[in-house]
Amino acid sequence: MNSKYGNNKKMLEFMERMFTEMAVYPHVLIRDYQLLGLEAEQVLLLLRILRPYYLHGRFSMKDVAAELELNEEEARIVVWPFIAKNLLEEDSKTHRLSCNGLIDVFYEQWLSEQRHQPTHSDQAARPLGIDTALLHDLTHLYHAFEQELGKNLSPIQSEEIRSWLEQDQVPAELVEEALKRAVLQGKRTFAYIKSILTKWREAGYTTLDEVLANDLKPESKSKSASRGRAASGVKKSQYNEIYDKY
Predict the structure, then answer these.
(1) Could you give the C-alpha distances from 244 to 40, 98, 185, 195, in angstroms and in order?
(2) What CATH number was assigned to the domain covering residues 3-114?
């Protein structure tokens, strides 16, 4: 023990606790994480997710939630990208997690090294951290979609919503508004919701206020008359007409 802290009982107590709570991780996970298609920030998050496994030999979504100080639904959102990459798996019945996919990657790498044929990963990866604002938005949208669609979201649908927020940078309020309009039109499909979001992006709308302001814009007389003849006098809402072609 370092003599610097030899007479500091509190420090000794802290150091004893710190080393007692250690979890041992495979060096290959830190050394060759690029093989997993991950970046350094993602690896730090993965290490926290795996901590219950390396401490107890098993782990579940409940364990991950406790480790990350989240509820289980938020934990599932955080873990999902690693499941999507087939690094982690969740048993649909027991809800236990496994890291078989992660192990498979390093096993194949080890076999290649044994044959003196190192492999290289060219997979691109997006940085991932625990973004509390994103977690809040995703949790809210997942609930809204499941309530309006009347069923649980599939992994593909969940990832689609995530991509709207993360990749396309669509505000959550616009996604929710597009969902509402799809429901009102009786077209509760992801394809229709996406068409609404695409139309708004093409029009340059980035906020709900801009969308609502557009709804209130007066239409030209010629356009109204033309639409009136085509619809045989049936009046449609402005946003319904916009998306008729979809």
Answers:
(1) 46, 46, 10, 10
(2) 1.10.10.10
